[in-house]
């Protein structure tokens, strides 16, 4: 109870928007493997590290971006084929997904403190479902996924939609993500951005993209809530 009271008093008036992959669940490298498998199936050869740096972008952006890495302009049909192959390859690895340290504790603490929160992910509902189940996210949480009509990160649409669902003002929203694409999207949405290193991106990159603070993972964020500039 004392912990919940502390969180509620520190975070009065704030709403939290979390990225999913690399922020709450350990899936960044699973996505890199899945993209690599999809590209190889199309006869496109690209190093894993180049793929990793793009994870977090929306599907419709990451496929042509990876094509650009090897000097290949992809057709719409090729992009759609790669996206489908990636989804299939990722879902094959779903049993390897694990929550990141402190992720469930953070969400549960916010819930107990009656602090509004949601998740905004560039993944579609099908790919996100297993991760959400692992985190114990109930049907009452207004999850925002990458669906038709909502542009993915680094566009701000996902975060703006999340704020609408939470009935929150932009300047009261805190976005927590692991990639530069999360933080660029947060900055374009005029929201406070917090970075975490659990997706494998460097602290300097996250700060350059707009992170106000950078922490190791959700457990580290939870123990430093007093630093969020309230």
Quick tags:
single chain, 230 residues, Rossmann fold, DNA polymerase, domain 1, 11 helices, 5 strands, 47% helix, globular
Give the secondary structure arrangement, pairings included.
Blueprint: H1 2-10, E1 15-18, H2 28-41, H3 48-52, H4 59-69, H5 76-92, H6 103-112, E2 117-119, H7 125-135, H8 157-166, E3 173-177, H9 180-188, E4 192-196, H10 203-208, E5 211-215, H11 218-222
Parallel strand pairs: 1-2, 1-3, 3-4, 4-5
Helix pairs in contact: 2-5, 4-5
Overall description:
The structure is a single chain. The chain is an alpha/beta fold and 230 residues long. The chain folds into two domains: 2-26 and 98-227, HAD superfamily/HAD-like (Rossmann fold, 3-Layer(aba) Sandwich); 29-95, DNA polymerase, domain 1. 47% of the residues lie in helices and 10% in strands. The chain has eleven helices and five strands. The protein has helices at residues 2-10, 28-41, 48-52, 59-69, 76-92, 103-112, 125-135, 157-166, 180-188, 203-208, 218-222, and strands at 15-18, 117-119, 173-177, 192-196, 211-215. It has a five-stranded parallel beta sheet, with helices on both faces. α4 packs across α5 (76-92). The longest helix is centred in the middle third of the chain and has 17 residues, at 76-92. It is globular, with a radius of gyration of 17 Å.
């Amino acid at each position: 109870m004392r912990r919940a009271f502390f969180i509620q008093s520190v975070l009065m008036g704030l709403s939290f928007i979390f990225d999913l992959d690399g922020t709450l669940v350990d899936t960044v490298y699973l996505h890199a493997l899945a993209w690599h498998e999809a590209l190889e199936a199309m006869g496109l050869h690209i190093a894993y590290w180049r793929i990793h740096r793009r994870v977090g972008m929306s599907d419709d952006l990451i496929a042509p971006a990876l094509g650009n890495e090897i000097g290949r302009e992809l057709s719409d049909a090729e992009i759609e084929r790669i996206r489908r192959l990636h989804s299939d390859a990722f879902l094959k690895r779903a049993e390897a997904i694990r929550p990141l340290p402190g992720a469930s504790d953070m969400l549960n603490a916010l819930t107990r403190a009656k602090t509004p929160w949601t998740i905004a992910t560039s993944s579609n509902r099908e790919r996100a479902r297993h991760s959400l189940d692992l985190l114990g996210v109930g049907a009452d949480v207004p999850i925002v996924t990458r669906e038709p009509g909502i542009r993915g990160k680094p566009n701000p649409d996902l975060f703006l939609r999340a704020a609408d669902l939470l009935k929150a003002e932009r300047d009261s929203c805190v976005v927590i993500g692991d990639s530069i694409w999360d933080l660029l999207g947060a900055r374009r949405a005029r929201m406070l951005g917090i970075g975490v290193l659990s997706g494998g991106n460097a602290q300097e990159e996250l700060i350059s993209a707009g992170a106000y603070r950078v922490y190791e993972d959700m457990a580290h964020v939870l123990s430093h809530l007093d630093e969020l500039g309230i």
